[in-house]
Amino acid sequence: MPLGPSLIFDKSSLESLNLDEAVLMDNFYMSTITPLYFVECLADLEKHLRSNSTPEQLVGSLADRTPESQSYPNIHHMSSVLI
Length: 83
Description:
With 83 residues, the protein is an alpha/beta fold. It has helices at 11-15, 19-28, 35-44, 55-65, and strands spanning 6-8, 30-33, 71-73. The protein has a three-stranded parallel β-sheet.
């Protein structure tokens, strides 16, 4: 896996991608997954949707598009400071 440019994404940008585009993003970019992304996905489980899909299906589709191979969790900046 070649190292590529780094990318920080949010939930709305990931929702705009289809599955093929998400796979390409995972292949060509090193993605940083922020804690806010996880909070937004968990909040989607409480949503009341107008469509025929369930909140679990919405979060499941986000999970399918979330980068896996070149993604790294982001830590809080105070955790990385050495005192």
